[in-house]
Amino acid sequence: xxxxxxxxxxxxxxxxxxxxxxxxxxxxxxxxxxxxxxxxxxxxxxxxxxxxxxxxxxxxxxxxxxxxxxxxxxxxxxxxxxxxxxxxxxxxxxxxxxxxxxxxxxxxxxxxxxxxxxxxxxxxxxxxxxxxxxxxxxxxxxxxxxxxxxxxxxxxxxxxxxxxxxxxxxxxxxxxxxxxxxxxxxxxxxxxxxxxxxxxxxxxxxxxxxxxxxxxxxxxxxxxxxxxxxxxxxxxxxxxxxxxxxxxxxxxxxxxxxxxxxxxxxxxxxxxxxxxxxxxxxxxxxxxxxxxxxxxxxxxxxxxxxxxxxxxxxxxxxxxxxxxxxxxxxxxxxxxxxxxxxxxxxxxxxxxxxxxxxxxxxxxxxxxxxxxxxxxxxxxxxxxxxxxxxxxxxxxxxxxxxxxxxxxxxxxxxxxxxxxxxxxxxxxxxxxxxxxxxxxxxxxxxxxxxxxxxxxxxxxxxxxxxxxxxxxxxxxxxxxxxxxxxxxxxxxxxxxxxxxxxxxxxxxxxxxxxxxxxxxxxxxxxxxxxxxxxxxxxxxxxxxxxxxxxxxxxxxxxxxxxxxxxxxxxxxxxxxxxxxxxxxxxxxxxxxxxxxxxxxxxxxxxxxxxxxxxxxxxxxxxxxxxxxxxxxxxxxxxxxxxxxxxxxxxxxxxxxxxxxxxxxxxxxxxxxxxxxxx
Length: 678
Hints:
Elements: H1 24-30, E1 34-39, E2 45-48, H2 50-58, H3 66-73, H4 77-87, E3 91-95, E4 104-112, E5 118-126, H5 128-151, E6 155-160, E7 165-168, H6 172-176, H7 180-183, H8 200-208, E8 213-220, E9 226-235, E10 243-251, H9 253-274, H10 278-292, E11 296-303, E12 309-315, H11 318-325, H12 334-342, E13 347-349, E14 361-367, E15 373-381, H13 389-476, H14 482-513, E16 519-521, H15 523-537, E17 543-547, E18 554-556, H16 558-575, E19 582-591, E20 594-601, H17 633-643, E21 648-652, E22 658-662
Parallel strand pairs: 17-19
Antiparallel strand pairs: 1-2, 1-5, 3-4, 4-5, 6-7, 6-10, 8-9, 9-10, 11-12, 11-15, 13-14, 14-15, 16-18, 19-20, 20-22, 21-22
């Protein structure tokens, strides 16, 4: 409820004489709601405005002769005119109205010219019709307004300029439990919460400006409980009894409580999101309930190691919280709290009838995901307030929300424990993989060193065997029979083939042991240079090299790319030997962001099912007698591709040639996964 103190209005404009506005005086007099007539010095009525003519017509008087018409309505009009002209004073009298009509108020006064000389008389007469109608309408409006105020569900109050309640609608019984007479004549804030009382001066100032003021405050009900009330105050034109403001109020406690509970739920969710702190969730819940249930102490108890109750969070009166901090062993409400734990249900105790010190106490269990009671949400009232079932329901709602929060916290803790266990297991596995990788790397390095040493040490003896066999055939050939010469030839060929194999192994070892020198490499130019060498070695062969431009440069080691192309082109040259005209092709494809290079021929091909065997050293798909070679070339190609971060794969159809594709991707480029890895 609100009041406004009526203050002086801003200064009125300075009055001016009506004669300063030509023509305006005639219009004002003619259109006046008061009947006006003018008499000359002899008392004869010579002029009347529209309202006066209407009054005369309504009374059934003919207007052919104005003076006669006024005399017919007011027989003493001429006498009164002469009287006021003689005395210089006004004269007022009443003329009784007809049946159902109001009396006519008639006033005579002298009329003076600008020099102050009496120049005639004026007759003023009020039309009773509009007055009666206005009175009737005002009474009807007042009756409707009172009926509306008395039937409204909101509490309607009228406040005077001193802040005193002058009227309260009967709905206050249902809203706050008071009788209207209990509030009328008392200050408007008599039942307001001390913390919510508005500054009367500031509120009056706002109302005087025409602002409709909406405020939300707590007021004490007749039963002692607090209720949230939303009030809308409007300024009124001051009445005879100084009423200056109208206030309409409604109970919004449920809306406020729903908002507080929603905010409490959001706060609990935020705590869960940010820290998953169980104690913080309990404190948020206690604060929210303390705001909703202002007539008591809210607390959360947990069961201590020895089975005693300990306070985890509390909100409400400071004295009550201090007492809780000292423990609950001497609390007379302890059995109610223990019932909440042991019976695992909502426990409640109400004050005995006539007990002036008793208070309601309620305890609600909070359960975890295993349906075990882990805490107890309790409330104890003050001021001998009895807690209603609705408030107990709010306690149970918050307890359910806390139970959900506890389950979330427990689940999150369990997931975190599982995550840490998984991280630990992954760490141990990573350490084992690194150890095994290191062992494997060391073994491979040792094996490569051994291969290099053995291959290097075998080269000289093998060359010596081949040379001595050749010398023996030259020097002693005439002494040997054909069988001996054939044996010497076999020794020479075997030593030569073994020497070539050793050279291939050395080349394979160098591919692994050498450092990469990545530069842009023109693979097409390298292929053409290698092809020239192959043509010179086999001038009687008809072989075409077809380069499908453009072939993008590869960022790779040029020495190793030459070895790679030499092996691929050499194989293509070899396996097209059965064709009248061999065709060897070099090209590239763009697969995503990866460049795939390929070498293709029209040779004998191979079985695709055995393609992976080609990239293992000494694995052959064709007889050495038909297509001689060491069986190490494609293994070298695969190792070079892997060293560049790429791979190689083959595809073929028996009798229709083969295609070998490879990538030389830098370490930062994703390698395409088409085909099988070599």
